[in-house]
Amino acid sequence: MKTNVLLSALLIINFISPFYSFANGISTPDADKNRPLIKTIDSISVISKELTLIVVGYEGCAPCKTLKNSDYYKNLTIGKTYLDILNSSDEKLFSQLFFITGFPTSIVMDSDWNLKSIVLGYRNYEARMDSVLNLGAKLYDIRLNSIESDKAVDMFAYALKALRCYWSGDYVQMQRLALKSRENGEYFFNNYLLYVAATKRGDSGDAALYKNEIATKFSDKMHRSIYAEMFTEMQL
């Protein structure tokens, strides 16, 4: 059953049309500052600056629907939002950052986009989320065999901030944070962020370097399913 759920999730991810191309997308920093997802997250983060909850799911995911419609979720008093990866490229991109292969996945961060917890699935959700929101626990449901858990947390945390910089049009800071992410653990997404930052800055040498890193280290079937449109963009 777990395998079927995973395969279904990957098929859903792969089915979504390539909404965007990083390299050929928003052309000016000023335009990037108006990204709807940034506005949404920033607007809810003022409700509780210490904790903001972002649940990632998709239409047709039964556990996602159960969570979204639950009294527990509806009655949470912190800032929260539900992202459907079928709705927009930015919502999908947020999911891809965390190498999400199971839904729902809940991301907890503060108003400065500092990562606090990653909670995978819906089983024992209330107890686990209460421990994060009310008891100060930090849960990180991370499934990366090649990277130590503590390192993976920092890897995702810096990548999250780098993505925010991309959406804000700050490609120099985006590169710096993506490099910090990569120092803690190398995965597809931080290499891709570096490829994009180099492309945006007109550095074809660095862009080719990170494109080659992706081609040689992250071209397996699962990566090609999760990041299909990015492989197409890079012509890999």
Please estimate the helix content: 55-70%
Written as H for each helix and E for each strand, in order along the chain, the element string is HHHEHHEHEEHHHHHHH
State which percent range the strand residues make up. 5-15%
Structural class, judged by helices and strands? alpha+beta
- Structurally, the number of domains stands at 1
Structure keywords:
disordered N terminus, alpha+beta, globular, 13 helices, Glutaredoxin, 4 strands, 236 residues
Give me the secondary-structure topology.
Layout: H1 2-15, H2 29-32, H3 36-45, E1 52-57, H4 62-69, H5 71-75, E2 79-84, H6 89-97, E3 105-109, E4 115-120, H7 125-133, H8 149-168, H9 171-184, H10 188-201, H11 204-217, H12 221-226, H13 228-234
Parallel strand pairs: 1-2
Antiparallel strand pairs: 1-3, 3-4
Helix pairs in contact: 8-9, 8-10, 9-10, 10-11
In short:
This protein has one domain (2-170): Glutaredoxin, CATH 3.40.30. 57% of the residues lie in helices and 10% in strands.
Description:
With 236 residues, the protein is α+β, with helices and mostly antiparallel strands. It has one domain (2-170): Glutaredoxin. The protein is 57% helix and 10% strand. The protein has 13 helices and 4 strands. Strands 2-1-3-4 form a 4-stranded mixed sheet, sandwiched between helices. A hairpin with a 5-residue loop joins strand 3 (105-109) and strand 4. Helix 8 (149-168) packs antiparallel against helix 9, helix 8 runs parallel beside helix 10 (188-201) and helix 9 (171-184) runs antiparallel to helix 10 (188-201).
